[in-house]
Amino acid sequence: MSATTLSFNHIQAAHCENGVTVSLLKNSGIGQITEPLAFGIGAGLFFVYIPLLKINNGPVIAFRSMPGLIFNRTCKALGIPVVRKKFRSKETAEAFLNECLEAGHPVGCQVGVYYLPYFPKEYRFHFNAHNLIVYGSNDGNYMVSDPVMEGTNVMTAYELERVRFAKGALAPNGQLYYPKETRTVTHEQMKKAIISGIKRNVFNMISPFMGPIAGVNGIRYTGNKIKQWRDKLGLKEAGSYLAQLVRMQEEIGTGGGGFRYIYGAFLQEAHAYVPNDELLEISNSFTASGDLWRTAAVQAAGIYKGRIGSQEDFNTMGDYLLEIAEIERKAFTALKNIKWQQTNPSR
Amino acid sequence: MKKEDVPQDLGALGKITKEVCYATDDSGKYTTQLSNGWDVKATALDTAWQNVEERIAAAKQKVLANEASPILFFMEKALMDTEILAGYTGFWQWQVKRHLKPDVFKNLSEKKLQKYAGVFNVSVTDLKTMTVNEA
């Protein structure tokens, strides 16, 4: 077995797909990219509650867009061609990975966390939308940069194969992706990408086309549902549902209202490219929303710890979400109303 | 969230790696801060694990009462559902559901039992007797 280790800088990030996107893009020449910029350009902020479906015996709730979209959208917005492949056969998947490494491409892989050896056991559920980067191989082992970890890790070929071919919902099927070529992007390109990312996120969060369960409508919908959970499910299961909500909200590394704060950071960084002061004010709204998501999580914890649990407590919990929905609706409406052309009087 | 309010409650992940959090500094500017974990999050995870334990215990009772085959017990223990188990064994989901019935399980071929045993990382004998060897 040959040994290839590519020169590669491990970057720790709050969220795995942001981190993979940032690392891969930096590695292919896009020096300006940061985690908040990748998240914002990729229109990562989202909310959806899918009724009737269940995951791990609890409700299906997501606080960010579908896995894979952040990388794809960010690359597309910056005009970078992407290679993305899925595989039927494990052998082909490994052979292709080796070819990529030999050709000098660090590669993003979608994996399941259940068999991920360096993850703490407590975190190993059948969750298949995790992302990591493989940046080298040596004697049948692979060098892995997982953006939520402080350092890099080594996995055996078998271990890597097992997580690349994890089964169940969102099965990765060995999926890998990387930027096809090294490029540089101009200030102007960044600016365009930022504006289009914001527009897309506005659409996803407040457009009436998104229906009642997605975007800010989805947050409202969930808030109202929560008020019924106690009667419908019983106190114990309702508590478990809330625990699941918090786990999705606080996905590893998003540390409290997570994605809302990253979006707030994005708007501040966007200001350097699009000097419109409204962006800074709206950033504050996302900070406020993130703070309220945190308050809601504390309330939820009171319920699933069994410290509180009256209908009144569920109403308070639901009302937090209604309040959040209004904050985010206003924030996205303000973003929608920004007149982008006027922000660049020098041209 | 202010930088100094980033929670530092040591949890399962915190022992292995710190997490990056976005928070604001005194001037309101966003920056990153490492966190050891958050109690609210850790108890959410504990709650999920309690649910898992309860499901395993309930499955065990069902197997002992001859209402389900031992596959149900091992499936719950591996945090799987029939869809995931079908994925790992290569059976169809309807087949897995059938194999959860004690009468069907009794007549399963050695080859099929071996598939389940392989996924659950136990021997066929242990699979049949619901024996767990904690490594």
From TrEMBL, chain A:
InterPro entries: BtrH_N, DUF4872. Residues 159-335 form the DUF4872 domain. It comes from the Bacteria. This is DUF4872 domain-containing protein. Pfam families: BtrH_N, DUF4872. Residues 15-147 form the Butirosin biosynthesis protein H N-terminal domain.
From TrEMBL, chain B:
Residues 106-127 form the HTH cro/C1-type domain. It comes from the Bacteria. This is HTH cro/C1-type domain-containing protein. It comes from Mucilaginibacter corticis.
